[in-house]
């Protein structure tokens, strides 16, 4: 790595370091035992998050995976329940199958469209009709959405679509949970207040350590009765922490200070995508960049994502290969305009270095072959 230069870390928005304001808030936090419900900073933060999200109550948990697991298990409190969710959703792919292994909940997947939605008619068709077949089928109890949708490039799910899914849930006597890991990104990008965006949901999980930049944690919001059940499950899963106000204080600063910066993250992501599109070996769908994520494909077979990321790392730029041809970059509040410019310069240089190295290897190989034949 280049000595003396700060690392431009675009692997994820989970990599941010606590700001000085967060560290100061953590040091000064008034704390007590949250397991018995008396940590004042935790209670204050949870109350504020419930208000912001338009729900009755909230609960701080250690991670987004636990937030989703607890939410699903509260709604599906009978083993053999079924949840309808996207085939490309975070809950289905990246959370260890926890809803099944721990909760005995059966996932019924519906294809995600490129924009992160699922066709309404396919959701309706996935609801189990128990007439005549109740003895054979699991019982549908829940629908899950994801907003923004990570595997679909950070796409925003509109309030109109969310309301429609909410109506489907009500019509069939189901609950609606939103994995809102980056729900504030969606709110800012759509220009819709966050409480309005999740009004149709019975529960929402909100990650504090992604776009909002807090060091640890997520919150779950919902009705008072839902949160009371969630609190019991949090304890069961080992998520009951003691002086958790230290973490909630940092999270509160993240919500207070970072939501207003998300529009800049989105703008920088678009600048990054536009710059990548100018590199001949890359393809980028500019229309897909709605928030802070940029996915691009490499069209030159001589440049692999893993090799590109390796060469970028030598230049203090960190990126994440997500497939045999694709790379993901995520912008966050600790990425500046100059960081974006530097990253693009390094991208061009990395591609040139890889192609030059490949050409040199081919030349040497051909030369060796000629010499061997000559001998």
Polypeptide structure, described:
By secondary structure, this protein is an alpha/beta fold. The chain contains 14 helices and 13 strands. The strands form 3 sheets. It has a 7-stranded mixed beta sheet with strand order 2-8-7-6-5-3-4, sandwiched between helices. The protein is globular.
Topology of this structure?
Blueprint: E1 8-9, H1 20-28, H2 40-53, E2 57-61, H3 64-75, E3 81-86, H4 90-93, H5 98-101, E4 106-110, H6 120-126, E5 139-146, H7 159-171, E6 175-180, H8 183-190, H9 194-197, E7 203-207, E8 218-222, H10 224-236, H11 245-258, H12 262-277, E9 282-283, E10 293-298, H13 305-314, E11 317-318, E12 320-321, E13 326-330, H14 337-374
Parallel strand pairs: 1-11, 3-4, 3-5, 5-6, 6-7
Antiparallel strand pairs: 2-8, 7-8, 9-10, 10-13, 12-13
Helix pairs in contact: 1-11, 2-11, 3-10, 12-14, 13-14
Major β-sheet profile: 7 strands, mixed
Low-pLDDT sequence parts: 369-375
Count of runs of 4 or more consecutive helical residues:
14
H and E string: EHHEHEHHEHEHEHHEEHHHEEHEEEH
The SS-based structural class is: alpha/beta
Helical content class: 40-55%
Beginning-to-end CA distance, first to last residue: 43 Å
The chain-level mean pLDDT equals 94
Number of strands: 13
**Rg value:** 23 Å
Spatial sequence of strands, sheet with the most strands: 2-8-7-6-5-3-4
The percentage of residues in β strands lies in: 15-25%
The coarse silhouette is globular
């Amino acid at each position: 790595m280049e000595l003396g230069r700060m690392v431009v870390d675009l692997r994820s928005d989970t990599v941010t370091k606590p700001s000085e304001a967060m560290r100061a808030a953590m040091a000064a936090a008034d704390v007590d035992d949250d397991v018995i419900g008396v940590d004042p900073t935790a209670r204050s933060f949870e109350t504020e998050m419930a208000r912001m999200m338009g729900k009755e109550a909230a609960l701080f948990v250690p991670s987004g995976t636990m937030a989703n697991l607890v939410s699903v298990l509260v709604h599906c409190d009978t083993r053999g329940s079924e949840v309808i969710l996207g085939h490309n959703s975070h809950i289905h792919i990246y959370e260890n199958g926890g809803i099944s292994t721990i909760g005995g909940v059966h996932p019924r997947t519906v294809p995600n469209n490129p924009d992160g939605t699922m066709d309404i008619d396919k959701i309706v068709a996935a609801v189990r009709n128990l007439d005549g077949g109740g003895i054979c089928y699991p019982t549908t109890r829940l629908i899950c959405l994801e907003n923004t949708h990570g595997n679909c490039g950070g796409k925003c799910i509109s309030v109109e679509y969310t309301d429609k899914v909410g109506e489907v849930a009500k019509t069939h006597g189901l609950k609606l949970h939103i994995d809102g890991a980056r729900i504030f990104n969606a709110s800012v990008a759509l220009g819709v207040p966050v409480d309005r965006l999740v009004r149709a949901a019975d529960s929402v999980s909100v990650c504090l350590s992604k776009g909002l930049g807090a060091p640890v944690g997520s919150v779950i919001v919902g009705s008072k009765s839902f949160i009371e059940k969630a609190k019991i499950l949090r304890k069961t899963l080992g998520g009951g922490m003691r002086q958790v106000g230290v973490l909630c204080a940092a999270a509160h600063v993240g919500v207070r200070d970072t939501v207003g910066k998300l529009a800049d993250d989105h703008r920088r992501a678009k600048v990054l995508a536009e710059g990548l599109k100018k590199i001949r070996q890359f393809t980028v769908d500019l229309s897909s960049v709605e928030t802070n994520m940029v996915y691009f494909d490499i069209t030159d077979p001589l440049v692999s994502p893993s090799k590109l990321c390796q060469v970028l790392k030598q230049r203090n730029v960190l990126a994440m290969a997500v497939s045999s041809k694709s790379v993901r970059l995520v912008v966050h509040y600790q990425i500046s305009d100059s960081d974006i410019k530097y990253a693009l310069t390094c991208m061009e240089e990395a591609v040139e270095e890889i192609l030059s190295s490949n050409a040199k290897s081919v030349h040497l190989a051909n030369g060796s072959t000629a010499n061997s034949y000559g001998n």
